[in-house]
Amino acid sequence: MSSTVRAVPPSRAGSPPPPAPLHRRRTYRLGRWDLKYSPYLYVAPFFVLFGVFGLFPVLYTVYVSLFDYELLSGTREFVGLENYHLLMQDAQFWNAAYNTLGIFVLSTVPQLIVALMLANLLNRQMKARTLLRMGVVIPNITSVAAVGIIFALIFADRYGLINWLLGTVGFDPIAWRDNRFASWFAIAFMVDWRWTGYNALIYLGAMQAIPKDLYESASLDGASTWRQFWAITVPLIRPTILFTIIISTIGGFQIFTEPLMYGNGLVRGGVDHQFQTLAMYIYEKTFTGNSEYGYGSAMSWLLFMMIIIFALINFALVRRSVKGDKK
Amino acid sequence: MAPRNRGRLPGAQLWQASPLTYLALILGGVLSVFPIIWSFIIASRDNSAVYEMPPTPGDQLFTNIDRMLANDDAAFVYGLVNSAVVSTVVTISVIFFSSLAGFAFAKLKFRGSNALLLIIIMTMMVPTQLGVIPLYLMMVELGWTGTLQAVIVPFLVQGFGVFMMRQYAMSAISDELIEAARLDGCSTWRIYWNVVLPALRPAAAVLGLLTFMQTWNEFLWPFIVLTPDTPTVQYSLKILSSGLYQTDYVALFAGTALATLPLLIVFIIFGRQIIGGIMEGAVKS
Prior knowledge:
The structure holds 2 protein chains of 2 kinds.
Chain A lengths: L1 H13 L5 H45 L2 E3 L6 E3 L3 H7 L2 H32 L6 H13 L2 H11 L6 H8 L11 H28 L4 H9 L4 H12 L1 H16 L3 H6 L15 H10 L5 H29 L6
Antiparallel strand pairs in A: 1-2
Helix pairs in contact in A: 2-14, 4-8, 4-11, 4-13, 5-8, 11-14, 13-14
Chain B lengths: L18 H25 L17 H10 L5 H32 L5 H11 L8 H11 L6 H4 L6 H14 L2 H9 L4 H12 L1 H17 L2 H6 L7 H10 L6 H36 L1
Helix pairs in contact in B: 1-13, 2-13, 3-7, 3-10, 3-12, 4-7, 8-9, 10-13, 12-13
Membrane topology (chain B): Multi-pass membrane protein
Protein name (chain B): ABC transporter permease subunit
GO cellular component, one term (chain B): plasma membrane
């Protein structure tokens, strides 16, 4: 046995060398290079493009915010924290922050709660399942600008659909623009209309991963469907809920198009700025009139900070209130 | 504790929808669709009948669309064409770069891949809109303001896409398949092109649809960096809504209908995939 094993290698080595080895060695080296380094080439485009057009501008915003930077007049002067200092005393900035927060709360809270309920309803065996799912997500595929125009007319003061409906049941018409709270409500309604179904689908996706037998045993133990929803469904999809909260916070604080189109395309946000959001104010300061890029950048950066803080607060609140079975 | 039996259990009737569920869902569906239908109704009316209640359709839809398209100030036709070009280029690019990077993260071994993937996931949390001021200054510097590359180039890659493709490639492509291709002498690039890309097609379709819709609907950035001479369709709508033609409401609504119609068509054809994509993509994030 051992002799045959030993006998094999010499015979192989002794066979005449085919012309291939040199060539094969080169392809082998190329292959090794290919294996080792080509993955970096494949992921590089993302990092280069994102770095240049995504990350760099966000970081550079901090730098610009330290300057008195105006494009038209050519002013470009280092002023340190002066822009931030001025912002603290800018009543219109705080007004915009107040509006943004108000619209954010009015839109996000009902949106996510209704989405949860909707997902729970969709998570059943039913006829026309796909059709119903398509129905609830249709608002999300419409163009935001178009939605703004459509809802501006639905919530119009004099000839609007809502005021007409209110009138037919005997209520006084509501001043959907002049009244601060009413305008917030109308804008929040647009946001809710557009995003509730989308969030419901996200929740539905998560719900379908929950094993059905958990509900079986719960109902054998006599738990009502309502109880099962809060004790099984909600805790088990907690990571997804947290995800949607973070996404909604990031989106909600940057709200721009809906209030803009609601106010007929003007960045002022109503005669008294009653529905001007932070993104609109940044736009007003930066891209109209004096082009105060430094001031606008300081605001952008503060907005970023607010988003992070609010995302973290929401994260902590939800983590505490929706207890999971495990950490 | 409980066995993970995903099959249909005897108690499955618990999951049958009740009539009340149907009622609630149909109501939700009506509420979802109504504003769109209503805008089409207004778009079909004569200008003198804009505010007429109750909402019943008129017969002027095509007249209004014609007037909308002929309106030079809004350059609406340009807007539609520009939007189509921008959305198509961005979609193809996102699919290409996402599948390439997703394949590398899912199936190739290289040092630092975990850290790089983590960075990609974190980029999904960076609100890029907050960098618009420096981005605008960059575009001024490059001389790109008012050109379509200003609204294309910054969106050529997308962290979400890379992550989604990576997740799909992990489950859809077996390591044996790639090994076999390697033994046959395929280079990594050929494996990507001939083996991986075809296998990723379902996920690429979903990513493409979502990207196309998102790009088509992009508002703030085109509004900042483009000019009324080179609008996207959303920008055209904005010009119309605040411009001279405010009184021509029916034409404006014909415009909103035209801006939404391509997406509605895409959605009606690919609705199932889009819904699947929303449900999948989010769960895995």
